[in-house]
Amino acid sequence: MSRRRIAYVLPIHNEEGNIPLLHERLTAVAATLADRYDVEFVYVDDGSRDRSLELLRDLRARDPRVSVYSLARNYGHQIAVTAGLDVADADAVIVMDSDLQDPPEVSLELVARWEDGVDVAYAQRRTRDDGLFKRTTAHGFYWLLSHLANVDIPRDTGDFRLMDRRVVAELRKHPEHNRFIRGLVASIGFRQEAVLFDRDARHAGETGYPLRKMLKLAGDGIFGFSTAPLKLISRVGGTMAIIALLWTIYLVVARLVSPGSVIEGWTYLAAGMFLLGGIQMLMLGVLGSYLGRIYVEVQGRPLYAFAVAETGPPER
């Protein structure tokens, strides 16, 4: 009977300062699992501009368990993870970031939950060594997402998780471009449980998620799993229509009761017009976000393209 396999999927983007220590710690974890599983490491380089790809090829030359895939350009973290999931062929797949904020040792707890029959064991942050701004915005995002999303997406979770082969197979059936993987996994179902951990500080380099990318990911999470913004447009529009109707009734009654009176307040009227105009533009922006997502999906373009794919035993 063949041994079961576990694959680590590791997206890489400008991580030359983290790769050596990352693989060293992964190797130590793999040694703990070696008596029960065959372990492989799937590194997906997401268009790095530093020496990351060179270091990955060096790892591959020294460790036959390493596979290296290099995307043709920088597609983004979620697409890089998707590419790794598409090529990983194992009984369980562990996705984790490569900046060592996701401790490799926690993956042993994920494997233990999988052995107990869990299909998805996701790492949930108990504490996080981030700045005040990052902690505050993350808390606000997950609070908003929990109130808007039509599926239960666990709070304080990233993509650090173990997924059974069946879950990965179902995830591959979701081809959308604006991806929010933790939401997709939550929507698939199966038995899912949390493993609490303390998130470390980034070991080296700069974050791959500046504010612009964080906002895009937040938008993908909200627009991809909630129609609440569209419903909000109708509610705001209805509220403004009622206010306008009441104001019209007031003007008519005031004119009938006191025909000689002059209704003043053109400044307030102008301010109200600008307010209504701003609300309308905001509503159009929400509609445009949904329309843009439809346009991208209808195009049906491939999610990614590989420039380099090095698998199997390295050449000597």
From TrEMBL:
One of its GO terms (molecular function) is glycosyltransferase activity. This is Glycosyltransferase. The keyword Cell membrane does not apply. One of its GO terms (cellular component) is plasma membrane. It is a multi-pass membrane protein. Signal peptide: none annotated. The lineage of its organism: Bacteria, Bacillati, Actinomycetota, Actinomycetes, Micrococcales. The chain crosses the membrane at residues 232-253, 265-291. Residues 9-171 form the Glycosyltransferase 2-like domain. It comes from the Bacteria. It is found in: Membrane. Belongs to the glycosyltransferase 2 family. It comes from Microbacterium oryzae. Keywords: Glycosyltransferase, Membrane, Transferase, Transmembrane, Transmembrane helix. CDD domains: DPM1_like_bac (cd04187).
